[in-house]
Specification:
Largest sheet: 8 strands, mixed
Strand order of the largest sheet: 4-1-5-10-6-9-7-8
Helix content: 25-40%
Shape: globular
Radius of gyration: 24 Å
Oligomer: single chain
Number of helices: 10
Distance between the termini: 67 Å
């Protein structure tokens, strides 16, 4: 076989080692190809518009978890680390995907064995939030009222367990706030950090809303598909530990959760 028939990388090896027979070059190339094939697929992140963790603004993507993913990607020499999708789709893609991660993902019993749990982002409490003014609404009263929740969120089960009868799903917090303000909902059920950030980003005054009742809590994570290899997840965790050590994580937390 003529060495010119080999791909460029193989021909370069022959040029560097002229004493080796062509068969040795072929053997090395086969080994190299096998090693490349064994390399785990790189993890890619998907997210929805869930401020303060991730959202798309007129100035581009932002958020605590979004920036954290970007910084970790830089440590690993990666680019284009995050793509945005409707939230419910992002979660479904990750659960079924080969090498996807998603954030922020609530760690719930029904999800425990469906994802790998990589980085704890925050512990959150969930609340029912209504418009300011008007009469008091107890948890018992709210069970028969129109309550909005993010489509695909596991906290829908909290409402179902408490026998809420009118659960209305929406694609994002912007839509939920619009529905509440236009009297299409009596309350929104959401995590306090996410809803407070959405209120601010959508130009509403926080004084226009009030917390009616608290119901449940959870830890939010950066999680990934079970198909992602341990070698790959270890790389991201090591990058995260470096960012903790150099103060980058603390600076991001101060910026988004001050």
């Amino acid at each position: 076989m003529d060495p010119a028939d080999f791909p460029l990388s193989r021909r370069r090896l022959c040029a560097w080692a002229p004493c080796l027979p062509v068969s040795a070059c072929a053997s090395w190339a086969a080994t190299s190809h096998a090693a490349s094939a064994a390399e785990p697929a790189p993890l890619r992140w998907v997210a929805g518009d869930l401020p303060p963790f991730a959202w798309q603004s007129s100035e581009g993507p932002q958020g605590y978890a979004y920036e954290l993913a970007q910084l970790m990607a830089e440590r690993l020499g990666r680019r284009d680390a995050v793509q945005f999708f409707p939230w419910a789709r992002a979660v479904r893609m990750t659960e079924a995907g080969e090498a996807l991660g998603v954030f922020p993902l609530a760690r719930t019993p029904d999800r425990e064995h469906k994802f790998r749990w990589l980085i704890l982002l925050m512990h959150v409490s969930y609340a029912l939030v209504g418009r300011a003014g008007g009469g008091a609404l107890s948890l018992e009263t709210l069970r028969s009222r129109r309550v909005g929740v993010l489509r695909g969120s596991p906290i829908i089960k909290n409402l179902q367990a408490e026998r809420f009868s009118q659960i209305i799903e929406a694609k994002d917090y912007k839509d939920l706030l619009r529905m509440l303000r236009s009297d299409m909902l009596d309350a929104i059920y959401a995590g306090a950090p996410m809803l407070n950030a959405a209120i601010e980003l959508n130009g509403y005054a926080r004084s226009a809303f009030r917390t009616l009742a608290h119901l449940g809590e959870a830890d939010l994570y950066m999680g990934c598909s079970l198909h992602v290899s341990e070698v790959e997840t270890d790389r991201w965790l090591h990058a995260y530990q470096q960012l903790v050590a150099d103060g980058s994580v603390a600076r991001l937390q101060q910026r988004y959760f001050r």
